[in-house]
Amino acid sequence: MRTLAFYAALLLLSGCGRPAYKPGTNTTTGAQGTGGAGNVTGGNGNNGGGGPQGGMGTTGGMGVGMGGMINTTGGQPPEQCMSFTPTRVSTMKPAKENAEAVAKVASMTLEQRIRLMYGYPDCSYDTTDQCFQQPPLTEAGIPRWMMSDGPRGVRSQNTFPTTAFPVSMARAASFDLVAEEEIGKIIAAEMLAVKWDLMLSPTINVLRHPAWGRAQETYGEDPVVLGEMGAAFVRGIQGAGIPACIKHFAANNTEDNRTTVSANMDMQTLRENYTRQFEIAVMKSDPACFMASYNKVNGTYAAENKLLLTDILRTEWKWHGLVLSDWGAVKSTVPSANAGMDLEMPNSMYFGALGSSVPAQVTGERVQEAAERNLNVRYTFGQMSDAYQNRAANMNFVDLPAHKDLALKVARQGMVLLRNTENILPFAAGASILMVGPAANEAHIGDRGSSEVHPKPANVVSPLAGMTAAATAAGATVTHAAELTDAVAQAAGKTAVVLVVSMAHKDEGEGFNEGGDRDNLGLAGPHPIDGWTTKPAMWITQLAAANPNLVVVLNVGAAVVEPTLDMAKGLLYSFYPGQAGGTALGELLFGTVNFSGKLPFTVANADSEYPAFGNGAASADYEYLHGYRKFDDGGVAPKHYFGAGLSYTTFTYANRRVACPTVSQNGLVIAEVDVTNSGTKEGTEIVQVYAGYPNTAVRRPKKELKAFTRVTLMPGETKTVQVTFPAKDLAYYAEAGGWTVEPVGHELLIGPNADPAQLTPAVPFTVN
Ligand code: BGC
After folding, report:
1. Rounded to two decimals, what is the model's pTM?
2. Distance from residue 450's CA to the centre of ligand 1 (Å)
């Protein structure tokens, strides 16, 4: 039983930026034997505790529960190569084992239990939050249950401000699991403060095509990045006392036709690319809740899809939480209830009929089970207690330094520099910079759909304001031209011109609020960027002619495929960088902070290189390969590789190696590489470890990301980076037989991004 002091302490903890659990341990060793801060993914457990009580869960940054580097220097192969048991995070026990939930449901009538299976009957989206709650069931002693969206912060529907973090795509570019967990904790602290109970995040759907209107809400194209980042976010949220609802299960990858489309694919494609990230998140964070998506999968609505909601999620993954629907995604009563849908949101459209018109087809046991699962979540997180219910709201969190500092830190880490011809960046003292474009003096922080966040206006820094502050500190000047003719007239003679190209919610966003999928991937097409009377491609062409020292900042959600971008000497993705984005941009362009972000998706040369999008169709046939997997298969070099990103320093990789040339199917793959900062500035490199399958007997991608880590190096410094993952993660999904590891020779490809030329020499190893 928690006390008010417990919740006060949580808020205080977030204010101090201190985790309520142990963070992961180091993964690198320095030349002088010092450990470097960092984090490792790799599927072998978890990077620290989740759990509703803040101190629960397992620790061990290697995720192997061993609390540090595996010693590979003794001459003997580490025994983990032969035998290794991944640690699973466990927060939710089966509802039947939760005595409080079972007892409470036992005391309720059938009608009361059914009322736990839907939201607010006939809810209205007007000024109250009716459509984001289960109303109180006073006669049964069950309080209101308030839900909020929030991949980029707590969705403040009505009146109060919350902290606006960079969107998930920007955070994915940081590949920083520790920071992602910190964001989860702060979001949970803000939820507790405003007295809301269930966080409807994270989104971990695959970015199958960059035109997806909600691309910004997810973590990119790779299932391992999606699963690891999603798990980190959930650990943060749940470790700080708020249950999280991971979404949208599954294959929700378009927006315009999201409520009708059937995503059709074979089982190998579904399991390896569209549910794998959810499986990783279950194992490494145990989310209390899953949200079923609007779309169909192979012809059956996700919300009535027994394969997804019961066979995979519960029978195979042994997950014990609550399944709720996306808002209006339930389209039937009996098939949905019997497939495993526990809670219809936001109203009672279909489940309101339970117990009256269709009692015989949905059993009382099913209703009891759904009600118990609902209360299992609430009791596990202490939300039924008087102390929790009666805690005071405290709205004074948006100015807490920890909240503001984290928003700035992740904005710095999330921007990706892709071109820096003639070292046009960083700008130096004395530089005269012209900021141009209608978006330069507005902070575009993302969509206005369900992920919308309203930060405190005084905490929001536009690109122009951030650049001006950084220029002042550096002894440089910044001026601004909002119109193209003015910009061209003023460009000549300036040290450089910085064009901020920002999309708005009408260009890419959730469909219900003017948004939807992108009409094209470029900057010159038929759909004008909202607020731009002249297409951005025309700005680029005319500005580059007026002053060749052009830097373009892409304030967008995902890949832009646009030939005129080649005219820019400097090119970066800032994504929607949150309330502190302008400050981060100024610091990065003036070089007081170094770039470290890397692309969480592949940028094509032409739209046709991506899979067919299918946003207008009744069904979309999903190919096996997407993203870098598809480019690898076709032998096509993309415009920018997955994982690419420049720094103001350079890194070299040497001595790529594997600790054990032979690994058991139940063992651990231990990869090592020596990374040197070969430049002149301190920098952080994101080291990526891919597996290759040169001897496979089945259909597989050429390579797949298995693990990644961040390593910070001073100029001239070398560190040995060790990254591990279980050999089980090398499995493919066989239509008959399920996950199968091939007992053959494999290879590790270690390097700075998905470019095959930068991942050599390959490191062979055998799985037996
Ligand atoms: C979105 C969900 C969101 C829900 C509630 C839906 O339109 O697809 O992501 O959680 O609304 O706001």
Report:
1. 0.93
2. 5
